[in-house]
Amino acid sequence: MPESVFLQMDAAKKAALARGLSLIDLSIGASDLPPPQVALQALSDAVWDPSTYGYCLRSGFTPLLEAVADWHQQRFGQKLDPARELLPLIGSQEGFSNLLLATTNPGDLILLPDPGYPSYLGAVAIAGLQTHLVPLQEDQNFLPDLQAIPADVAARASVLVLSYPNNPTSGVATPEFMQQAVDFCLQHDILLIHDFPYVDMVFGDYEAPSVLDAKGAMGCAVELYSISKSFHLGGFRLGWAAGNKDAIAALEQLKSAVDFNQYVGIQRAGIAALGLPRSHTRQDARRLMERRDALCQALRGTGWDISVPQASMYVWARIPAPISSFDFALDLARETGVTVAPGRAFGTRGEGFVRFALVREPAMLQEAAQKIAGFLKERV
Ligand SMILES: Cc1ncc(COP(=O)(O)O)c(C=O)c1O
């Protein structure tokens, strides 16, 4: 399994602190915005309700799935059957890993984006899969060219992984792209996993499409959702899978041997959060957008040609100096206390880029940009 770059980053942060620098940590996408009060209250109440203390079987998670089905109906107009097309997860990361175990055999081939979310590689290693990397390139808006996948690879592949709005590139998809992906997967009998934790982190008029709205999607696709990003509750570990019945059934069977689902009190927190009006997540997205604008303007002011993302909580930027992404991130951390994620940590095609997480207020992002400008001056 791949080593986590964040351990190396941790050492660089310690070195900065030892030099008396204050840290501005933009390296990890852990949202700092406040979670909804109603969610916290629901958990707090549940802790004093003895009916929540036992193992959670299907009857225990039915209320969550009904709330999730209502959310899909309101958000996308989708009618999903809570009994067969939805399943609660202990976060979308857990769901991804167990879904691979449930639906593949060791040696099967998976099509993975490069760059991509690093934990995919760990999950693929656990499931013993072979990998074919699909490049996400800037000149193609970080969308894979599915027609460029060699015919023998497409014929052999069992799973295709997509995630839009994308981590780390901030790339976004259109409904037309989702349809192409579904058509490709139906044609080649491939399970399409769309990892969708950034569904609510969208800016301006942009709306992130659900793959389940594509024609034929319920025949081949599973979409993974999470309360981690939408409601700033990453530590609560709650999400859900939606989509193809057979894949959901396989995942439920596997999970029944592995876990007893998330604590019902946390599920109640999720129900409370999902019941909030859309204006709640829109307001949080507006705050992220202000941060995006502050950071992008400040970096552009230093002469860095930054593309402004339409969604996600990241700014993905090509490094404007002859320095590797690891050296950039580690040296920047040690010398200035500003930490960013090196692009290489997300795959070989991430080299040459860094990722900024929009997890601080605008003034601090501007301060970070000034420090970065000083750091870069000595290197260009
Ligand atoms: C693409 C992607 N998938 C999954 C996750 C993890 O989500 P969860 O907290 O629901 O496991 C993250 C977190 O950063 C992510 O960026």
The sequence of SSEs as H and E is HEHHEHEHEHEHEEHEHHHEHEEEH
Radius of gyration: 21 Å
Q: Can you identify the CATH class of the largest domain?
A: Alpha Beta
What would you call the structural class?
alpha/beta
Count of separate structural domains: 2
Give a structural overview.
Its cofactor is pyridoxal 5'-phosphate. Pfam families: Aminotran_1_2. Residues 23-372 form the Aminotransferase class I/classII large domain. It is a single chain. The chain contains 13 helices and twelve strands. With 380 residues, it is of the alpha/beta class. It folds into two domains: 5-35 and 279-377, Aspartate Aminotransferase, domain 1 (Alpha-Beta Complex); 38-275, Type I PLP-dependent aspartate aminotransferase-like (Major domain) (Aspartate Aminotransferase, domain 2), CATH 3.40.640. Helix 11 (278-301) packs parallel to helix 13 (362-377). Pyridoxal-5'-phosphate binds at residues 29, 91-93, 117, 163, 167, 195, 197, 226, 228, 234, 239.
Compact description:
By secondary structure, the protein is α/β, with parallel strands linked by helices.
Give the secondary structure arrangement, pairings included.
Blueprint: H1 5-18, E1 24-25, H2 37-47, H3 58-76, E2 86-89, H4 92-103, E3 109-114, H5 119-127, E4 130-135, H6 151-156, E5 157-162, H7 175-188, E6 191-195, E7 221-226, H8 227-230, E8 239-243, H9 245-256, H10 264-274, H11 278-301, E9 314-318, H12 325-336, E10 338-339, E11 341-342, E12 353-357, H13 362-377
Parallel strand pairs: 1-10, 3-4, 3-5, 5-6, 6-7
Antiparallel strand pairs: 2-8, 7-8, 9-12, 11-12
Bound molecules: pyridoxal-5'-phosphate.
Keywords: Aminotransferase, Transferase
GO molecular function: transaminase activity
Domain Aminotransferase class I/classII large: 23-372
